[in-house]
Specification:
Blueprint: E1 6-11, H1 15-26, E2 31-35, E3 49-51, H2 55-64, H3 69-75, E4 77-83, E5 93-98, H4 100-112, E6 117-121, E7 124-130, E8 133-139, E9 144-152, E10 161-164, E11 167-170, H5 182-188, E12 194-200, E13 203-205, E14 215-217, E15 241-245, H6 248-255, H7 279-285, E16 293-298, E17 305-309, H8 317-324, E18 335-337, E19 340-346, E20 364-366, H9 376-394, H10 408-419, H11 443-454, H12 459-481, E21 483-484, H13 486-495, E22 505-506, H14 507-511, H15 518-521, H16 525-533, H17 538-549, H18 551-565, H19 586-595, H20 600-604, H21 611-620
Parallel strand pairs: 1-2, 1-9, 2-6, 9-20
Antiparallel strand pairs: 3-5, 4-5, 7-8, 8-9, 10-11, 10-19, 12-19, 13-17, 13-18, 14-15, 15-16, 16-17, 21-22
Helix pairs in contact: 1-9, 2-9, 2-11, 3-4, 6-8, 11-12, 12-17
Amino acid sequence: MFNEVYDVIVVGGGHAGSEAAAAAANMGSKTLLITMNLQNIAQMSCNPAMGGIAKGQIVREIDALGGYSGIVSDTSAIQFKMLNKSKGPAMWSPRVQSDRMRFAEDWRMMLEQTKNLDFYQEMVAGLLVENHKIIGVKTSLGLKIKAKTVVLTNGTFLNGLIHIGDKSFGGGRAGEKAATGITEELVELGFESGRMKTGTPPRVDGRSLDFSKMTEQPGDEKPEKFSFLDVTKPLTKQRSCHMSYTSEKVHDLLREGFDRSPMFNGRIKSLGPRYCPSIEDKINRFADKDRHQLFVEPEGWNTCEYYINGFSTSLPEDVQFKALRSVVGFENVKFFRPGYAIEYDYFPPTQLKHTLETKLVEGLYFAGQINGTTGYEEAASQGLMAGINASLKVLEKDPFTLQRDEAYIGVLIDDLITKGTEEPYRMFTSRAEYRTLLRQDNADLRLTPKAYDLGIASEKRLKRMEEKHSKAADFVQFFKDTSVKPEEANPVLEEKNSSPVKQQDKMFKIFSRPNITIDDVRKFNAVENYIQQNNLDNEVIEQTEIQVKYSGYIAKEKQNADKLNRLEYVKIPSDFDYSKIKSMSFEAREKLKSIQPTSIAQASRISGVSPNDISVLLVYMGR
């Protein structure tokens, strides 16, 4: 049945698997996507949304690199919001509320239209390995499918165990069976594994809710979009979300079920996501708070199913129901399905290289929750990078990695393989030391040339990026070259309580003032004329404003990044023997031996390796 040898086999059709399959196939590799249910490709297992704080930046980076997540997020969006707009542009984070069913459908259609990509529905039960090198996979029906590389993107399915109150049953998510066999084989091969937990809230019938008692949460007045391509358009109509709150009464009702909670009675031993805790965890950890926000999110354009964001729980279904009925607006709520927790196997990511290839088995890559991350966006970005590198390995080309000053994706992967994680890892802007450089608005400028060189970004995408770059640079130069007279400038400045000018001054200087925006300077005739004559779109205008107002911060951060990056180029040989360096601490030697950093910079980021250890290492290497 499968006589040919595939270049890349991707196991799992979630967000990581979908991006991995698309990337490998688009690079020309003969690719097979194997998943347990082809109807659930790119299923939104948890909340029906993409993006958010730092996650939105990742989606734009995936898009800039030629991935599909940004396009699908646009085509299936029902609401758009740019979060943190009151802060500086380094913090701006796009987010869409998605139509859950349309999201999965659009992903499936895009994958089916991707050349070099085959599909097969079955469970992968094991791996084919010879001499520490992957040669294929085994299925539950006993098929052996050969491949040069394999990408594992198993999500929460590896020995998945679902908990609802005192009930437990095997499953990868509600209504789907768990995947067995792979963990045991990997452990036999020498891999270290662990267990993690995540959870999801109840889904309810919107027809049973009283939205008049809740606070409406509409989308942006002028919605934007994710993809840098013009194949998608901003929304012209949107669906609102709503907000309500828990109360002391709700908390007391939830506490009544704590003795039957798997989180508190010891049945769940693994760690859950710290920054997305269950409702019982919140009221236990934050006992001083008398209420918590609940976001009531529609699951699509036409469905009446709603997702109750903030009410993730594994309490018994009767306790969930009773407590939720005490929330304002939920007095008559009807459940579609209760919330639940799920435990699953993961593999500490310090066992990987920067390419996401495993150190123990050549040609085997891990991406997504198998690496201890949480979130669609984190998974999708790893899938993209694993798919790219699996394809490059087959082509016998140099691997592709991203530095911490080049992308949030670079920060994410470096954090995982250098520091590891013992709880579900979630990306935040605070994790990126160069976040002024890694903005959502410039992801295409940073990454599209790299993607074009790899062959996964089209010439059309590259030309669009280059046009945006040149138009913004020209517009910045216009502000530097063009002066404005006091009689035209002062009415605008006075309106913003900004000091008037006494003589003609360059527009760049006026525009650079903290409280002066692009909307203010567009009141100058020359500016509006320039925009109209050069047909500038909002992306170019926004890019210009950021370059004018934050140029000093951007230049300073770039200078700092360049200084620190010098250590990235001080490479450590792969066979370096740390045991010989007796003047280095025992902990540092053990950590360095385990993680095998490729550069001095990476070594310096390992927990337990001190600046003194790095100095000793540099001396020993003759630097």
